[in-house]
Amino acid sequence: MCILAFTLLLLHVPLTVGSLAGTSCFSTMKHRAHMDGDVMIAGFFPLYTLGIDHSHSHASRQEENKMFIFKNYQCVLALTFAIEEINKNPDLLHNLTLGFDIYDVHFRAWTMFKNPFIFLFGKYKIPNYSCMRVSKSIAVITGPSGITSDQIGTLLGLYRFPQFTFGPFDHALSDHNKFPALYQMAAKDTSIATAIVSLLLHFSWSWAGLLTTQDENGAWVLVELKEEMAKNKICVAYELMISTQDASHIYKLMAVYNQINLSSASVLIIYGDNDSLIALMVFIEQIFMHDVDSDCVTWDNCAHDISLDLLPACTFDMTMSVDSYNIYNAVYTVAQALHEMLLHQTEVQTMGNRKGVLPSSVQLHTFLKNVQFYNPTGDQVIWGEKRKLEPEYDILNIWNFPEGLELKVKVGKFSPYDPHGNQLSLSEDMVEWAIGTTETPHSVCSESCGPGFRKSPQEGKAACCFDCTPCPENEIANGTDREKCLQCSDHQYANTQRTQCLLRAASFLAFGDPLGMALVVMGLCFCKLTAIILGIFWKHHDAAIVKANNRALSYILLISLIFCFLCSLLFLGRPNTVTCILQQITFGVVFTVAVSTVLAKTVTVILAFKATSPGRRMRWLLVSGAPNFIIPICTLIQVTLCGLWLGTSPPFVDTDEHSEPGHIIILCNKGSLTAFYCVLGYLGSLALASFTMAFLARNLPDTFNEAKFLTFSMLVFCSVWLTFLPVYHSAKGKAMVAVEIFSIFASSAGLLGCIFVPKCYTILLMSKRNSLHGFSDKRHKSRNKHS
To answer: Which residues cross the membrane (predicted)?
Structure first.
């Protein structure tokens, strides 16, 4: 457990205690110290606290076994020093002298009023029974505990007796209706929560405990601190409150100390009045250092002329404290107001013997409200509405705490007047941590979630307690302790570590890709082969096998096949709106021409057989060229379907960001799937009709087996496209485009190979069969066989 050994103190405390240590030492300082003067200032300071019984002896349990608080004795020295300095100043108070009465305030609530009653009414007077004794006291200084000032202030307020409290600003004491005669020397510390949280943020402490006093001021600071911590995502590990001091107060600290040690937080924020803090620090010191403390531990063991410089720093701190400086200013404030009041009395009346007329404490309030002066250290002291409300804070580090000398070293400051983000300045190399610790203490409920992970809150626990969960696919966390993972945009993808979004590479089947180049070569080769076959048929247009089965239909089919091979090139390269439209429209129309041409050739074979059979009157259909009308009619229907497709929902350029990690696939979206499947279905219907008719006519007598070739070609065509559909829908990216191109090649090559390769073989290698005589002999034999 690392105890947070930082302290925030008010800035501008230029005095040193070296000068204070030279003032009078009061060997009889048990419950009261006194120095006579024309006008008196009373001080009520807690100078003793209970120790811890290590010996379990009867004497140690007695009230007399109290520990002297050397830190609070510095307040006595500050009051003494200020009064002696004022008495030596000839420009103040017109030869009036200040004196003091200093009383010890008991830590028990029921004895706290003992000395204040003695101060007001005398040792043997009964309050409110006889008149108040004649007193030369004009003001009271109380503190540092707000509780002490509160309870004493309730009594002093009845008599409008000016009261100055030198402890930390207490919001409970700022109620002027309840405390009409009370003045707080400390500035209103509205920035204390911001200052503490800034320190926590500087060291990345997000898990801290809170220890405050159980009073109104502690509750107010606790609320402010928790709100500021929540705004900066710092969680409270536990909350502890120290009750007002009583006889069992120190013993209750043992339970508090044990609860602190049980927590996983290694940072503890303590806020409270000095009495509570001193009791806590004494308790901790006695836990760790009860075998150490000094030869001079009580006033009874001190020589009358002992120097405070001889005391160890852990026993008596020679550095001027904020409380001492506030007492110093409080004394000067009273002196300045008293000086103004005396000047006013001189102006309104002539005093014969001024020493016989003492100023009234009630009259002092009028002059206190507008006091404004420079103290001997050069600091301006302003009272009233012009008073500075936002204090600056020193950040002190206690070196070698708790085993060392408790040397307070200024390591930084917090100024609310600096720009936001620059209010805290800290020399971290000057910070000394606990004994045996060289690194900055670590205080978090859960370790930070690194890049690629997000925080998942733990149910029922504080926000600082969480689990680290990896970011989902395509989401990143590029910093630590991210609440949510960020979704990468469509043109980006998350790396495997889920720490950054990378730009996706555009993916499409380009002409320059090896696969694209291979498909281009294949398409051009098929086009060239088709053109060669067309050239052969054109050269041998008078051959019987060319004339057979309608020579014009063969030319149309060959030309449409050339376009079928060429349309595959539209699927290569980066898609754009024009190519996306042409891909599907060209494919549908060109293949419709090809398939309808095959259908026309099949019909021609059937009509040719029927026309030569006896008793049939279908010759006129064959002679009139009726089969040739199949092509424009079928093509017109397909063109109409394509027109409706373009008019409703045409194809467009689209992207696919999910199929290939690290790539964004640029593809052509079909637009209306209904229109696409209508075009494809219509083409399939034509192919099925052609296959059915060719299959039925496969055994008809034919010299060149035209019906069988047409049947086999359509079988190949239908098989290719039936295989294409499932493979096409399961493929992604470039593979999907390649499948479509291969299907175009396979189906077109099937038509070319099955119908025209055998004819080219006959034309080039079997010229006798290609003659008219051979053609007539074969037809005659075939007719006799069927008859």
So the answer is: 515-540, 552-573, 585-609, 621-646, 674-697, 709-729, 741-761
Q: Measure Cα distances from 518 to 377, 397, 487, 665, 757 in Å.
A: 94, 77, 38, 20, 24
Domain that holds residue 626: 521-778
User: Could you tell me if 479 and 603 lie in one domain?
Assistant: no
Question: Who contacts 382 (Cβ-Cβ below 8 Å, separation ≥6)?
Answer: 372, 388
Q: What's the distance, Cα to Cα, between the start and end of the chain in Å?
A: 115
- Tell me the pLDDT of the chain averaged across its residues: 77
Query: Kind of pairing, strands 505-507 and 663-669?
Result: parallel
How is residue 640 written in tokens? 């109409």
Under 8 Å between Cβ of 608 and 622: yes
Does position 1 have pLDDT exceeding 60, yes or no?
no
pLDDT, one tens digit per residue, over 613-648 is 544 555 555 555 667 788 899 999 999 999 999 999
**CA neighbor of 137 nearest in space, from 102, 184, 182:** 102
The pLDDT score that the predictor gives to residue 429 is 85
Q: How many C-beta atoms lie closer than 10 Å to residue 1's C-beta?
A: 15
Query: What would the pLDDT profile of 190-247 be if each residue is shown by its tens digit?
Result: 788 999 999 999 998 999 999 887 777 778 888 999 999 999 989 999 888 876 555 4
pLDDT: is 763 or 325 the higher one?
325
Q: How many helices (H) and strands (E) does the chain have?
A: 21, 26
- Euclidean distance between CA atoms 764 and 781, whole angstroms: 24
Residue carrying the six token digits 């001190």: 302
Write down the residue that tokens 């689209």 correspond to: 654
Are 132 and 120 in contact by the 8 Å Cβ rule? The answer is yes
> 324 and 271 in one domain?
yes
Is 761 in contact with 539 (CB distance < 8 Å)? Answer: no
* Domain annotation covers residue 732: yes
How many domains are contained in the chain? 3
Quick one: average pLDDT of 689-696?
84
The pTM of this model reads 0.60
